[in-house]
From TrEMBL, chain A:
Belongs to the CTAG/PCC1 family. One of its GO terms (cellular component) is EKC/KEOPS complex. GO terms for biological process: cellular response to pheromone; positive regulation of transcription by RNA polymerase II; telomere maintenance via recombination; tRNA threonylcarbamoyladenosine metabolic process. PANTHER family: EKC/KEOPS COMPLEX SUBUNIT PCC1 FAMILY MEMBER (PTHR31283), EKC_KEOPS COMPLEX SUBUNIT LAGE3 (PTHR31283:SF5). GO terms for molecular function: chromatin DNA binding. This is LALA0S09e04632g1_1. It comes from the Eukaryota. It comes from Lachancea lanzarotensis.
Automatic annotation (TrEMBL), chain B:
One of its GO terms (molecular function) is nucleotidase activity. It comes from the Eukaryota. It comes from Lachancea lanzarotensis. It catalyses: L-threonylcarbamoyladenylate + adenosine(37) in tRNA = N(6)-L-threonylcarbamoyladenosine(37) in tRNA + AMP + H(+). A divalent metal cation binds at H140, H144, Y161, D343. InterPro entries: ATPase_NBD, Gcp-like_dom, KAE1/TsaD, Kae1_archaea_euk, Peptidase_M22_CS. Its cofactor is a divalent metal cation. The keyword tRNA processing applies. This is N(6)-L-threonylcarbamoyladenine synthase. Its EC number is 2.3.1.234. Binds 1 divalent metal cation per subunit. Keywords: Acyltransferase, Cytoplasm, Metal-binding, Nucleus, Transferase, tRNA processing. Substrate binds at Y161, V162, S163, G164, G165, D193, G208, E212, N314. It is found in: Cytoplasm; Nucleus.
UniProtKB/TrEMBL annotation, chain C:
Residues 16-263 form the Protein kinase domain. The lineage of its organism: Eukaryota, Fungi, Dikarya, Ascomycota, Saccharomycotina. This is EKC/KEOPS complex subunit BUD32. It comes from Lachancea lanzarotensis. Its main location: nucleus. It is an enzyme of class 2 (transferase). Its EC number is 2.7.11.1.
Length: 88, 385, 263
């Protein structure tokens, strides 16, 4: 759903998180995807996997919203990593 | 009777195993339970029984300093810090070497604080995908009710659900837990917690417990401090009471001798102590709770009460409820101790496993989004007649 | 009902007044009796007299000073309200015969009857349960509209009930037509606050939702239709006041739903 307002999300960040296997990266992507973004008009995130690497693409209306949004996703990624490390 | 064996145990086991994860408020709970697979014969049908066995019940509480409440962000951080460790410990305690033996992973879907709920569901989803074990989203309140029913064997009680975020009088009818009465503003636990904050008493082990202990120290039990009594049918309101008792406590601390309720107008001598306030507050609030419970019992013709939720372990509340029941024919009161009353993982596992055995597991991971508001009567209770 | 309560009542009443317990509500025990508290016995009368004796026993679970205050306050306010309401045209409430505030006792007119086919006493609750197999018949609709009108009249006259449930409405036939009576005014009050009316309506709506879940939407609609009709008949002033009450009703409802439910 690319709206007209999306053009205004000029503050972007790209992150890559390497996992041990492609399956693990897939799991991370599936875990992160369901949760809705509180203000989709201000912040947007896309998850994708290339082999064993999880790609995170953030777009935001300003750098403050970007920082808050990114750090919240990173907290979740940390939980996923810790869970995988412990129980794989 | 409902046959609970709609879905057979995985891996041809003769029992069901469920992991329960709770983190809707400041307690992080992990529980593991087992239900034996009970047969359905024409002559002895046991398929509606659970015969719950608790293999692990671990909890870690996020405790804040005196005078402070728990904020969503800090509580979520606490849960993230401990979640994996608690699951590991629970599996060890339960003696489960292969977690793929689990039939289901149950998590609290709501109601509760958004950030803490979310921090737990992230781990639940990861575990489910890693082990290929189906998820079940559980309503926190239904978890309390099912836990209480299984532990006390109360079959069809009127339920008084009293905790930090909820105050409800519930009775079952036609596959739903219907809410007959509830608070019109703040919850009882919230009221007690906030008063504890005003008094700056410790939040360890819990603010409500410390108020209960202080109330026991009241030496002036004949002279109750009069507080508003605000029952509205089967509903009640508590914010006015809190505001009033808070103002009394502040006057007491500030030595406001103009307050004639607290200080003798002639001599300026203090007439009321903090313990007296705690005692009066408890007496007043609990009388209201017992009254609305009795109203619901009379309305639905029931003689059993089950008290669940964190405030339910208050001994004085249990005593008052028992006293009310003695005056009703065949009246019975059921309550549990702090292991099961206070938020825990076992209750989520118990309600979740019942749901799972009736064939109601998550099909699409997109349906695992947690929600702050999730009313008790939204859940379809397939496991009861 | 525990024997202790029965014993306490018979000691209070002396053995000259025979009583028959009929129900134990949350705060009161209700008896029927053939004895009028002060009128001489009418030997000639063909029909046997029947009165309701409502007794609020001391509640041991609560602190004695809370108990005393509540019993006194509720018995007194119920008596006062019944006395006032029975003078208002169109309002159906039981007539007050006598009251003893300190002992928590009131005598009132007996209302209601047994429903056919063992469906119990003719409270609105039992009537609706009895009609559950055919919930949408005209008779149910008419009864609920009339109940709504009674509540509308009550509010229009600046009174609130405080505990509106389907147990607290009794039906009585008059020339083969069911007429609703509001009972149990222990939590009632004379009030000009729109908030009290909003809460009254919310409490009723919730009681219908939980007790008659399957048909609650329709039932509440019929109740509110009768309720609004009372205000509509009062022209402009009525419309304005109705708007205020309904607005507050909606606010109370939202407060209930919006409330965060943490823990």
């Amino acid at each position: 759903m690319k709206g007209a307002r999306e053009n205004q999300l000029l503050h972007v960040l790209h992150l890559e998180v390497p996992f041990e296997t492609a399956q693990q990266a897939q799991i991370a992507s599936k875990v992160l995807t369901p949760d809705p973004i509180l203000k989709p008009q201000d912040f947007h995130v896309q998850y994708s996997c290339k082999h064993s690497v999880l790609h995170l693409d953030f777009e935001s209306i300003d750098d403050r919203v970007l920082r808050v949004g990114v750090s919240s996703v990173i907290e979740s990624v940390k939980t996923i990593l810790e869970t995988i490390d412990e129980f794989k | 009777m409902v046959n609970l064996n709609k879905v057979p145990p995985r891996h041809r086991k003769q029992y069901y195993l469920a992991l329960g994860l709770e983190g809707s408020a400041n307690k992080l709970g992990v529980g593991i339970i087992k239900h034996p697979l009970l047969p359905q014969h024409a002559d002895s049908d046991l398929s509606h029984h659970c015969e719950l066995q608790i293999l692990a019940n671990i909890r870690d509480t996020y405790v804040t300093p005196p005078g402070e409440g728990f904020l969503p962000r800090d509580t979520a951080r606490h849960h993230r810090n401990w979640a994996v460790r608690l699951v590991k410990k629970a599996l060890q305690e339960a003696g489960i070497k292969d977690p793929t033996d689990l039939d289901t992973i149950c998590f609290t879907q709501g109601p509760g604080m958004g950030a803490p709920l979310h921090s737990v569901v992230v781990m639940a989803r990861t575990l489910s995908l890693l082990w290929d074990v189906p998820l079940v989203g559980v309503n926190h309140c239904v978890g309390h009710i099912e836990m209480g029913r299984e532990i006390t064997k109360a079959e069809n009680p009127v339920v008084l659900y009293v905790s930090g975020g909820n105050t409800q009088v519930i009775a079952y009818s036609e596959n739903r837990y219907r809410i007959f009465g509830e608070t019109l503003d703040i919850a009882i636990g919230n009221c007690l917690d906030r008063f504890a904050r005003t008094l700056k008493i410790p939040n360890e082990p819990s603010p409500g417990y410390n108020i209960e202990q202080l109330a026991l120290k009241c030496t002036n039990k004949d002279q109750l401090v009069e507080l508003p009594y605000t029952v509205k049918g089967m509903d009640l309101s508590m914010s006015g009471i809190l505001g009033y008792v808070d103002s009394l406590a502040k006057d007491l601390f500030n030595k406001n001798t103009k307050n004639k309720l607290l200080f003798d107008p002639q001599t300026g001598q203090q007439l009321v102590t903090v313990a007296d306030l705690c005692y009066s507050l408890q007496e007043n609030l609990f009388a209201m709770l017992v009254e609305i419970t009795e109203r619901a019992m009379a309305h639905v013709n029931s003689n059993q009460v089950l008290i669940v939720g964190g405030v339910g372990c208050n001994v004085r509340l249990q005593e008052m409820m028992a006293s009310m029941c003695r005056d009703r024919s065949n009246g019975q009161v059921h309550a549990t101790d702090e292991r099961f009353c206070i938020d825990n993982g076992v209750m989520i596992a118990q309600a979740g496993l019942l749901q799972y055995r009736m064939g109601d597991a998550v099909q699409d991971i997109a349906d695992t989004v947690v929600t702050q508001k999730f009313r008790t009567d939204e859940v379809y209770v397939a496991w009861r007649e | 009902m525990s024997g202790q309560i029965l014993e306490a009542v018979s000691i209070y009443l002396t053995p000259n007044i025979p009583i028959e317990p009929i129900s134990q509500g949350a705060e009161a025990v209700v008896f029927t009796t053939s004895v009028h508290p002060y009128e001489p016995k009418q030997e000639s009368s063909e029909t046997s007299n029947k009165y309701i004796l409502k007794y609020r026993p001391p509640k041991k679970y609560r602190h004695p000073s809370i108990d005393k205050a509540l019993t006194k306050h509720r018995t007194l306010s119920e008596s006062r309200i019944l006395a006032k309401l029975s003078q208002l045209p169109g309002l159906n409430v039981p007539k007050l015969i006598a009251c003893d505030v300190y002992n928590g006792c009131i005598w009132i007119e007996f209302l209601g009857e047994e429903l056919p086919n063992g469906n119990g006493f003719s409270s609105l609750k039992n009537f609706l349960w009895m009609s559950a197999s055919d919930p949408h018949n005209k008779c149910v609709e008419t009864v609920l509209e009339k109940v709504g009108r009674q509540i509308g009249l009550l509010h229009w006259n600046e009174y609130c009930h405080g505990d509106l449930t389907t147990s607290n409405v009794v039906l009585q036939q008059s020339d083969g037509v069911w007429e609703p009576y509001l009972i149990d005014f222990g939590l009632g009050s004379a009030t000009t606050f729109v908030e009290d009316k909003g809460v009254d309506l919310y409490v009723l709506e919730r009681a219908v939702d939980s007790t008659h879940s399957r048909y609650a939407v329709t039932y509440n609609e019929w109740l509110m239709r009768g309720y609004k009709a009372v205000y509509h008949e009062q022209s402009k002033k009525g419309e304005n006041r109705l708007r205020e009450v309904l607005k507050r009703f909606e606010e109370v409802r939202l407060r209930g739903r919006k409330r965060s439910m943490i823990g």
